[in-house]
Design brief:
Elements: E1 5-10, H1 14-26, E2 31-36, H2 39-48, E3 53-56, H3 65-75, E4 81-85, H4 90-99, E5 103-106, H5 113-196, H6 201-210, E6 214-218, E7 224-227, H7 229-235, H8 239-244, H9 247-250, H10 253-267, E8 273-280, E9 286-297, E10 303-312, H11 314-350, H12 359-388, E11 397-400, H13 401-415, E12 419-424, E13 429-432, H14 434-451, E14 457-465, E15 468-475, H15 482-485, H16 508-518, E16 523-528, E17 532-540
Parallel strand pairs: 1-2, 1-3, 3-4, 4-5, 12-14
Antiparallel strand pairs: 6-7, 6-10, 8-9, 9-10, 11-13, 14-15, 15-17, 16-17
């Protein structure tokens, strides 16, 4: 309740004013009043008296409550305005309250005045409380803006990582160009030798056998005249099988129609051409090849025959696919938390006019989680970049392994969803970079939670093996297929399990392997389908082993 409440009374009838004062005294309020009758007095009192509450008669000889209310609303909209009148009528009173008048008291029912004053004052307190909450929201909004600026800084770091990817792509282009130049050089060598040896079939075929690619010659109609030995070694076909089936069995059925269409199209030209297709190797595997066709011309410039080569470009295609997959994964993984953060900020912006909303704390927590995910992804990119450039540094020191393990498991235990048991030699001390080892342990434990969510117990075993310490993280999940174990620590490799969608860039275990390599240790994984997986690494006990 406001002490020494300032009440401005707009009333031209002294008797009615006295009645109001008497009723106010009965209410027990602590107050001071100022009584005015004209517009000028009313405006001056608003400025100098600075009232907390206004009580106004509805109609005065030279002034009225409606005009007074509009003057008050223009400069002091927060001051409660109560009309005290015996002639206003219920309908007019309702319309005025709709326009913003605080309340209406009939002069015949002045005993209700104190109740309505208390209610108006309570509204003031609520309004002040809302104002305080709005100020807190403003401060939190400022904090979010600061967080957004930090996000922009991290986005700039991501751009640097992206630039590094572009640089790697340029290197791939250079390799591709060198390969293309090499192919062109080899083809030119074939053409020159073919022109020189066109009169000698035997010498011409010997030359075709010297190049490392599959090669053949065909007529202008497309009939193949000769295959070099590389063809038979690669396809495993005998000459009789080649004569009967040839390209029909060697080229992947999905590429067959397109390849023949392109082959015929090139034969219609006079300057050759190229296309790509998958060729079946003798072991049944298909590998991508670059097919090139070049014409052999006689002295008059007429095409005598065509020379074709097939260069194995499987590794180049795999490298290109890995780069494309990684860019796609990185874009998706970064877009998801950034989109979530943007949505949270947009909802917060909509809720700024309603700071008491229960959604506000949840949105702030969600925004912080999204920001944390972006930070983890960027850190993985930077660590992978440092490892690739040989700049992943370690700062070794002596520490007890069990202490680091306890620290890294604290967050998981706090959620009370998984049980982590630490077994073995809990006093074993190693010489390593504690921060990097913590990073590895967190990665192993998070992987156990992510890929084996039904295995509620995770065991971490510490043991000494000669002059090394071995740490194993063991889960009872579904296990990993044997053919995938050899790729787990490769860069960009991600395990697909039962169609589940797991987040990440495929860099975590690669970074772990690079850290252990820096410590001269070993890292690996053992798994049995249906029984679980064990991820382990070793560390030196003494500086001399590092």
């Amino acid at each position: 309740m406001i002490p020494n409440l300032k009440i401005l009374i707009l009333e031209d009838n002294k008797t009615d004013a006295d009645l109001l004062l008497r009723e106010l005294k009965k209410s027990g309020l602590s107050f001071i009043t100022e009584i005015v009758q004209t517009r000028v007095e009313f405006e001056n009192a608003l400025h100098h008296f600075n009232p907390d509450l206004i009580l106004s008669d509805y109609s005065l000889p030279s002034f009225d409550a409606v005009t007074a209310f509009r003057i008050k609303q223009n400069k002091h909209p927060h001051i409660p305005f109560i009309i005290v009148s015996g002639i206003i009528g219920e309908e007019n009173a309702v319309e005025l309250i709709k326009d913003g008048v605080t309340d209406y008291v009939p002069k015949q029912k002045l005993f209700t005045l104190s109740t309505k004053i208390n209610r108006a004052l309570k509204d003031i307190e609520v309004r002040l409380e809302k104002s305080s909450i709005a100020e807190k929201l403003r401060l939190q909004t400022v904090e979010l803006i600061i967080a957004n600026k930090e996000l922009k800084v991290q986005q700039e770091e991501l751009q640097k990582a992206h630039d590094l990817l572009i640089e790697q792509e340029e290197k791939v282009k250079v390799i591709n160009l060198e390969l293309s130049e090499l192919n062109q050089e080899l083809e030119m060598r074939v053409l020159k030798r073919t022109k020189a040896l066109v009169e000698s079939e035997s010498r011409f075929r010997n030359m075709m056998e010297t190049i490392p690619q599959i090669a053949w010659t065909n007529t202008v109609e497309g009939e193949v005249l000769f295959y070099n030995q590389r063809w038979y070694d690669y396809t495993g076909l005998a000459k009789e099988q080649t004569n009967l089936q040839g390209f029909n069995v060697a080229i992947h059925r999905d590429d067959l129609k397109t390849s023949f269409d392109q082959f015929k199209s090139i034969l219609q030209t006079s300057d050759g051409g190229e296309f790509q297709a998958r060729g079946k190797r003798t072991d049944g595997l298909y590998r991508w090849h670059l097919i090139r066709l070049m014409p052999i011309l006689d002295e008059q410039g007429h095409i005598q025959l065509w020379v074709g080569t097939a260069t194995d470009i499987q590794e180049l295609r795999v490298l290109q696919q890995q780069k494309d997959d990684f860019i796609s994964i990185a874009s998706h993984e970064l877009k998801t938390p950034i989109t979530s953060l943007k949505a949270s900020l947009q909802l917060l912006d909509r809720l700024k006019e309603n700071p008491s909303s229960a959604m506000l704390p949840k949105l702030i927590v969600q925004a912080n989680k999204s920001l944390g995910k972006v930070n983890v992804l960027i850190e993985d990119l930077l660590n992978a970049s440092r490892a690739n450039a040989g700049q992943l540094h370690i700062n070794p020191q002596n520490f007890i392994l069990a202490d680091i393990i306890e620290d890294c498991c604290h967050a998981v235990r706090a959620e009370d969803l998984f049980t982590i048991k630490i077994e073995g030699d809990k006093e074993l001390e190693v010489y390593a970079d504690a921060t990097r080892i913590d990073q590895i342990l967190i990665n192993f434990v998070n992987n156990a939670i992510k890929y084996a969510p039904k295995s509620k117990e995770i065991r971490i075993c510490i043991e000494r093996i000669n002059d090394m310490a071995k740490v194993s993280v063991i889960d009872k999940g579904p296990g990993i297929q044997p053919e995938k174990l050899g790729y787990l620590f490769d860069r960009y490799y991600r395990v697909d399990s039962s169609g589940s969608q797991y987040t990440g860039l495929g860099l975590g275990l690669y970074i772990c392997a690079e850290i252990i390599k820096k410590h001269n240790g070993q890292i690996g994984a053992d798994s049995e389908l249906g029984k679980g997986s064990t991820f382990w690494f070793t560390l030196p006990l003494k500086p001399s082993n590092l």
